[in-house]
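FAQ: What does the model actually see?

It sees only this:
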Amino acid sequence: MRERTARWIGAGVLLAAIAFGSVARIHTALSLPGFDATRAEGMLQSDPALLYYITQRILEAGGLPPEDFRSDPRIEHPAESDVPAMFTVGQEFFVAWAYRLLGDDLPLHVFCVIAMGVFASLCAIGVYGLTRELTGKVSWAAFAVGVYAITPANYRTVGFILVREDFSLPFFALHLWLLARAVRVQTPISIAIAALALAAALATWHAMAFVVTLGAGCVFAWFLRSGQDPLSTRRSWWIPAVLAGASLVVPVLRAKLFLLSVPMQIAVAMPVAAAFARRSRNPAAARVLGGVAAWIVAFTVSLALTRLVAGEAGDYGHVLEFVWSKVRHLGVRPEDPLELSFGARLLWQGPFATGSPAQLLRALAAAGVLLPVAVLAAVPRWRSGRGDGREPVLMAFALVCIVAALLMRRLEVLCGLVAPVALAVLLSRLRPVPVAAWTVGLALVQAAVFANHLAGYSLNRWYDAQRTAALSEAIDWMRAHLPGEGAIAADFVSSPAILAHTGRPVVLQPKYETRRSRERIERFLEALYRRSPSDFRRVLVDEFDARYLLVDLPLLFDSRYQAGIAYGVTRVPAGSAAAALLHPEAEVYANVAGFRLLYATSGELPLLRIYELEAPVPP
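And it is asked to produce this:
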């Protein structure tokens, strides 16, 4: 009876945490200065606008994939885009189906905030289940889920309307719980659903492949240390089998060659190394040498196959370049952009900027102070290489998440996910007297920091009143005055807003996980900053088949580093298209040969300008 009561109490705490997280996300987003609950124009740009466009297309098709879903002509005009192969589609279908059932009386963008606010809060289920699995106590699971609900790092995406990690992370959190449970019970159904949850996470967020690589590396390291091969247990081979099947069935995983990824390489290397160890007189040495050798062989073969199928390092080659650049430059962006490849320059901005211990501490609050302690407490278990491996693997994953968050601020959310579990495991090892003081003190500090975080939360740069008004005004003008269906060239942040709200074809988009997308962005910026106006016009017309050009003055000016102009240099190359089209004086920007100015937003310095690309003057 006592156990049943505890379960009911734990379920109540879990539901309360989900409800609290949902309300906090939704209320904070809808209360942001600049958030317009009636019109989405002006607020949607970059990734959220692209997701919004895809969601709209699904709604127009009655909740089904549009007829041109595998050959969309508007996203990267004039090329056709295979949407489910280019993007991790999933969130869009969920929102579209939910909207058809529940949200017809709400503006779509407001419903997106509500639906994803609730869905993102479901991460609490995985946190609760994983903590209970590792500690065996409902009370500690309730504690962990409470800390999760008041950790600022877990609210990074509030206000962005649609972000893919909000849909993927709940599946990943669920996978962590189900995997820990499957290691214990080893039943077919437990293993299968753990693998399916991971496949869902991988299929709905590009960055999840990187996260899974970190986790697989921790499992591999524990195997090398302890000899505990998670793939040698009964039916555990279902996990790589399910992932392999998903990598062949899910279009985006097939296109990104997940079958040849590092996690799949490790899945091959561990059984090979285990077989070597069983036949050796020195199992520990044979396991380490065999494991490393097997992985090197698997990596080499996978790389060769990737180059054969996709060329170079495939669509994710820029991620490898970016990570290596971060390590090589110790997280400091070099002043000379030409020290980095274009792919690395493209990634090294915004949420992928280098973090700092102070920023990470603010994101985790009191949990950030104790998380390193929890990691250190697992060192003796790691050294011994004996016992239940789930805890040391979790702590190793927490450690690599800390390093990853310092390299890329966006990954703070991983620390926010694992920190509550790690703290619950740490505190559960204490004696009863100090543990009460620790938990109460931690909860009070965490709650105070979180309340202050929400009170001061803003997206001023994203929902800047002047910019959102200018973008909304330009979109209204395009709807009313641009004839025909001519494509519009613009930067990859503004382009999705045009796509989502006018339906016109654009030439660039912000999800540059494919080489084609990165090459188009590089070509656009190189021609803008390094070529004459006539050459730039020729690229837009001949290569991109564009009829119009939208110049977003602040965004294009901020793209200097990506274009290869040294950090801190405020002038653009003389004689370039940028020198004319980004000029502050109307006498210059309104009289560029080959570009007929049609419209400029109001204000002393128009932020947005729309040109028609005229035919070249005969020589």
